[in-house]
Design a protein that fits this description.
The protein is α/β, with parallel strands linked by helices. It is built from seven helices and nine strands. It has helices at residues 5-12, 36-41, 61-66, 80-92, 106-109, 128-138, 175-184; strands spanning 25-26, 29-30, 51-55, 72-77, 98-102, 114-119, 142-155, 187-197, 201-210. The model has no long low-confidence stretch (mean pLDDT 97).
Length: 212
Amino acid sequence: MKSNLEEWKELQGTGYFENHHCYAKKDGKLLAEGEDAAIIQRYTALTPDKKVAIIGCGFGRESSLIAPLVGHVWGVDVSRYILDKAEAFLSARGVGNFTPVLAERWKQDIPYGLDLVYCYIVFQHITKDLVRDYLSGMRGKLAPGGEWVCQFAELSYGTEDAEQKVYEPCVRWTSREIREVVALCGYELLALDTQDIEGHGLWHWVHFRLAA
């Protein structure tokens, strides 16, 4: 399987979020800002009984917004370095229902019974093989009726796949490719909404669940 996890370990180890222009900061500190909960709630409810996995939890931004609304969150990322950052970030905000999971061990360490898997930005940064592996492997972690809400990119400067070198990839997924991989991995597509990102191309927001 083609993987760029090792390259992302190196990127994260050099202060990826702190040095990235897309992440809000105040006095040098990363902030918990975003519309993640609202995005998810366009497709499904976030309720105190739900168990949620976040692929690519980073420093804990999404988890800090989602965890207070649900029962528990498992956050997956590439190294202990970034997961330690997430735990510290969430602890400082009083979030205690979070379990960090190494990307290399998610199949062993995430329990069965998830209600929702959420992924934002990450699928445009990892290889297509890794995306397929998450989609197919998570089938065995989802409870009956378990769902996904995730984002894919189809940007004008995107590439067919991620190269195995230390850089920030932008992997292009067309709506046809998304429909195909969702079906191939055993899911029922519920929604595929396309958002025009001015000057860049398209984002696709996708909602799907375990096929009957």
